[in-house]
Write a structure and sequence with these properties.
By secondary structure, the chain is an alpha/beta fold. 49% of the residues lie in helices and 7% in strands. The longest helix is centred in the middle third of the chain and has 24 residues. It is globular, with a radius of gyration of 23 Å. The chain starts with a helix and ends with a strand. It binds flavin-adenine dinucleotide.
């Protein structure tokens, strides 16, 4: 166990209590709170809550937390204004992209915490089964909901559900979307696909004063529902899933809001001093490790930045670097997926990248591996195999190695199309933070130069930026990383020493 995880285990919840105190002191109650309307996209024409309704509903999908959630805060504000009960629904799908039981267990345990917390605030929680455009629609009709609020997830499937719901909701029920994930709402930052971090940085930074603000608390809801709602059976839910169960869950990441805040606390207290200088060294424990909780929306980036900024005097460079990654890079990824429907395909790359990959399509490859060989860490490269082991076993590959890993898949695969497809598949299947805009953009950056520029032309890569083993050796002690993660064989998440 690393020093920081020992410290984390020993730590009490002092940080959680301090955040609660801060939230209470943040200002007005949610009803008086002046909600920044730019966080909302009204998707249907009518924006009045339906008359004689029996409640309003927040369809939670990307942001599975109670506090620090602009979408839930906005729904509560509407419910209070209209003096009606407040409902939260989460639609659980039997399968989502390439996610496995590893992801589902993490999500479901987090949702159990959400249900308990909502109950303590007199807010109803219902776990619905099936696609939101049918399951939620039925809930709205059966329970006479007067408005639907949802969060923002710019991947194709969630965007399709939102659009479909918009078409099929009863005409008197408005639907709106609140960006509860990005600090500056994606549609406010820019109305087009941005070229790179350079072009989006100032568009975001210039709006932080307006959007990087404290959260009011979600309060005890005064209007109780008299309707007979279905109780959640968590055990059966886990049983009926149709996902791959061969990929083990990870034990280091404690699901839910509290687990996320504990990780934040250990980052800010134990690792922040190293973040600026050592975050590209895979042998050092310097990263925040927060991506699994960010991906499932169990904690908010905005909360983490507000907390991190309290350490700015002591660790200025590290805080700036963390803000660059957690705000600029991540919001750039959302921008790409929102404005480019081909975010997971070579078709979504810039023309120069498509042309250069095409020109080098027939170049001789020294090594060619199948997906199965990649998945089982059976390449000739001990660093690549060790990184793949870390992904499979730990559920999170170090950020620096993710770039090397994906670029080598391009180098050792017959076509760039297969390389991109396989990198996305392995990432989504094993990474705790997979199925995320950051992941699609990470793979697109590595394999098709998205948000990057053209470099010196070479075989297979063309003008796509190249990385090699020697370069890694110059950056960190490759042998140390290989000693820790190499020399193993695994099948589907279960690893044994060779
Ligand atoms: P930290 O360095 O502590 O960063 C804090 C947060 O900043 C991250 O949690 C993330 O939200 C954001 N961030 C950091 N780096 C990036 C980046 N390059 N792009 C966008 N946001 C960033 N990130 C995912 O969240 N999910 C993925 O599935 C994913 N797959 C990737 C695949 C490849 C091939 C590459 C090159 C990158 C991928 N990334 C992915 C981006 C990045 O590597 C991870 O966000 C980071 O390693 C997560 O670890 P951390 O939270 O400890 O990072």
């Amino acid at each position: 166990m690393s020093d920081s995880s020992q410290a984390k285990k020993a730590r009490t919840s002092s940080f959680i209590e301090a955040i609660e105190e801060d939230r209470k002191n943040a200002g007005e109650s949610v009803l008086d709170f002046k909600f920044n309307k730019k966080r909302i996209r009204i998707l249907t024409e009518l924006d009045e809550v339906a008359k004689n309704c029996r409640g309003v509903v927040y369809w939670m999908f990307r942001d599975s937390r109670v506090q620090d959630n602009w979408a839930l805060l906005y729904t509560q504000k509407i419910a209070l204004k209209n003096k009606v009960p407040l409902h939260v629904c989460f639609c659980i799908l039997p399968k989502f992209l390439d996610a496995t039981i590893r992801h589902y267990k993490f999500l479901l345990k987090g949702l159990e915490e959400v249900e308990r917390e909502l109950k303590s605030l007199n807010i109803n929680f219902t776990l619905l089964h099936g696609e939101p455009n049918s399951a939620l629609l039925e809930f709205v009709k059966n329970y006479k909901m007067g408005a639907v609020v949802t969060d923002f997830f710019p991947l194709k499937l969630p965007m399709f559900w939102v659009n479909d719901l918009k078409k099929n909701l009863p005409k008197n029920v408005p639907l709106c979307q609140v960006d509860a994930h990005n600090i500056v709402p994606c549609w406010v930052t820019s109305d087009k696909q941005e070229y790179s971090a350079r072009t989006i940085r100032n568009k975001i930074n210039s709006k932080l004063d307006e959007f990087l603000t404290p959260y009011p608390p979600v309060i005890n809801h005064p209007h109780t529902s008299e309707q007979n709602l279905e109780k959640t059976d968590w055990k059966t839910t886990l049983k009926v899933l149709k996902v791959d169960r061969t990929v083990d869950e990870v034990t280091w990441a404690k699901p839910g809001y509290k687990g996320g805040i504990l990780e934040l606390e250990s980052f800010l207290k134990d690792r922040l001093d190293l973040y600026n200088t050592k975050r590209n060294d895979p042998t050092v424990d310097a990263l925040s490790n927060l991506s699994p909780w960010f991906h499932f929306g169990m904690i908010s980036v905005q909360r983490c930045i507000l907390e991190a900024k309290k350490f700015k005097k002591k660790h200025k460079e590290s805080i700036e670097a963390f803000m660059e990654e957690a705000i600029i890079r991540s919001e750039l990824a959302d921008n790409f997926c929102f404005y480019n429907e081909h975010y997971d395909s070579i078709k979504g790359a810039y023309q120069w990248a498509i042309d250069t990959l095409d020109a080098h399509r027939k170049d001789k490859r020294e090594y060619i591996y199948s997906l199965d060989q990649f998945e089982k860490s059976l390449t000739h490269d001990d660093l690549w195999n060790a990184a793949q082991n870390q992904l499979v076993e730990y559920g999170k590959m170090h950020g620096f190695l993710r770039m090397y890993w994906a670029k080598k898949i391009l180098e050792w695969t017959e076509s760039p199309e297969d390389a991109l497809k396989w990198a996305i598949y392995l990432n989504d299947r094993y990474s705790m933070d997979g199925c995320d805009p950051n992941g699609y953009v990470g793979c697109m950056w590595s394999i098709c130069g998205i948000h990057d520029q053209g470099w010196k032309e070479r075989d297979i890569f063309g003008k796509i930026r190249y990385m090699n083993y020697k370069g890694c050796q110059r950056k960190f002690a490759v042998s140390e990383f290989v000693k820790k993660w190499g020399g193993k064989v695994h099948t589907h998440g279960k690893t044994e020493k060779k």
